[in-house]
Structure formats: structure tokens, C-alpha cells
Amino acid sequence: MGGSASKPPSPKWCTSWRDITWGDNTEQACSVKAYHPSNNNANHLRVLLHGPVGAGKSSFINSVTSTLQGKISVGAMTDATSGRSFTKKYKTHKIRTESQGTFYPFVFNDIMGLEVEAYNGISVGDLKLAMRGRVKDGYEFRNGSEMSEDDPFYNKDPTIDDKAHILVCVIPIDTLSIMKDEVVQKMREVRLAARDLGIPQVAILTKIDNAGSKDSQDLRKTYERQYLKEKAEEFSQLLGLQLNCIFLVKNYSSETRVNADVDTLILDALSSILTYGDDFLNDL
């Protein structure tokens, strides 16, 4: 891979490859909000996000929070300018419910981004430890360096709640074609590690609003745009994920109010994340 980013072609259309109901999100939002782990030994489902620097991992967490709370949230810190990973510490992000002092029974963990150089970004070793629940909240990632077992943030006895129950790869669709081979190789290594642990995997392709001209920005046509389908197929071949595990999302970025169509795409992805993750959690 590598090279220069190519300009997306003028909009071309295909038969929709994802069945989505647009307009009223009430039913799907209620279904997500009613989720509870089917394994009675678990207090929550843990979603672990990974991907290259600037992919939109923290923004996805904020977007999910915004959708569920009905107002724009910036709880997970993001950075729009740095070429390096902005996330340095391992942190569990909880989302408050409408009831005072309570949280939804699913949590998100954002991590340091994957970078080209072996000595920069999160080490694949640390990512593997996080999947196994070996990393405690507050651990500060060190560029290219793996946590040792004598580190005070090393969790020697992970519980079912500490482990990752689904791995979500977040990729900006507008830079997919120029992603460096070294980053792709790290992602493949992470994918194989998750496979060996039996952890389900999905991908979120972000920044779909950057992939085209203004006349192609109708979010309701997201899964009818030939260009976006081709990008999803490109990523599917790259990592071996099936298309039904790949979701197209526009994160909240410039908006000051929530938008029903943005929410629809977020809820579609989140609903499947919870379903796939709960299937794994139920077998633990």
C-alpha cells in the first residue's frame, strides 16, 4: 500500500448492501439501551478499540455517547492536528444512562494508535495484553514498549469484566488506500491474536463524509454508494473480515446538535457490536 490519496470519483450507485431503517430511531435506540449481558457473571460488555493514529477511535466513543444521550459529548479527548497518538493512557469509558448515577452495561476502551515504526505507537504486545484483561486502568502506554509482568498496572488475575469481549478496528475510509504496510501488518497480527482468543471482531470505517463531493453527502445513501462499497470490500480483503462485520459511520465532529441520520449509522454499528460481543461473553 502507500502512495498519495486519490480523489473519490463522482457518485455512482449500487444496490444497498445493508438493510437500514431511516427516520425514527426510537426502536433501535430502545433496544440498545435495554441491553444487559446475557452472562450473569458479567457486569458489563467491554469493547476494545484499535486502529492507526487519527482513525477516529475516541471520536467514535464520543459519537456513541452523543447518540445515546441526545446531546453532543466530548468526554473522550481527541486531537485534530497531531500526527502522533493523542491517547496515552488506558481508560475505561462509561456512558451515563438517563437515571441518575447509573451507566449502561457496556464500556469502551480506547488505546494508543498503531504507528509505522516499531518504536512508536502502541506495541502489539500491549494490545494483546489488553484483550486478555491484563492491563489496568491508568496504565500509560510507552511507544513501542510492552508492559512487563512486574509493572504495577499489570493485572495478574483478570476477571470476566476485565477482558475484552469484542475487538473493533477503526479506520478512516479516506486514507485506506494509502495505509502503510507496517500498520496493516500490525493490524493483521492483532486480528490473529483475537482469533486465537475467540474474540469477535468488527470494523468501523469512519470519515465517510470526506469521501466524495457535496452531492454525495446524503447519509441515507451511504450503503448505496459504489465508492464506499468498494472501500469496504477493499478493507474486507485486506484483513479478511466479512462485509457484515464492516460498518460505515460518520462521527460527530463539527456538529453542535445530534442528527437523526448520523445516529442511525451509529446505532446500526453499536447494535451489532453488542450482539456479537454478547455471543462471546455468554460462552465465557
Quick overview of this protein structure:
This protein has helices spanning 26-33, 57-69, 124-131, 181-197, 226-239, 260-282; strands at residues 45-50, 91-93, 106-110, 166-172, 201-206, 246-248. With 284 residues, it is α/β, with parallel strands linked by helices. Strands 2-3-1-4-5-6 form a six-stranded mixed sheet, with helices on both faces.
Structure description:
The structure is a single chain. It is built from six helices and six strands; from the N terminus they run H-E-H-E-E-H-E-H-E-H-E-H. It has helices at 26-33, 57-69, 124-131, 181-197, 226-239, 260-282, and strands spanning 45-50, 91-93, 106-110, 166-172, 201-206, 246-248. The chain has a six-stranded mixed sheet, with helices on both faces. Helix 4 (181-197) links the parallel strand 4 and strand 5 (201-206). The longest helix has 23 residues, at 260-282. The termini are far apart.
Topology overview:
Blueprint: H1 26-33, E1 45-50, H2 57-69, E2 91-93, E3 106-110, H3 124-131, E4 166-172, H4 181-197, E5 201-206, H5 226-239, E6 246-248, H6 260-282
Parallel strand pairs: 1-3, 1-4, 4-5, 5-6
Antiparallel strand pairs: 2-3
Catalogue the unreliable spans. Answer: 79-85
Helix content: 25-40%
Q: For the CA atoms, what is the radius of gyration?
A: 18 Å
Mean pLDDT: 88
Order of helices and strands: HEHEEHEHEHEH
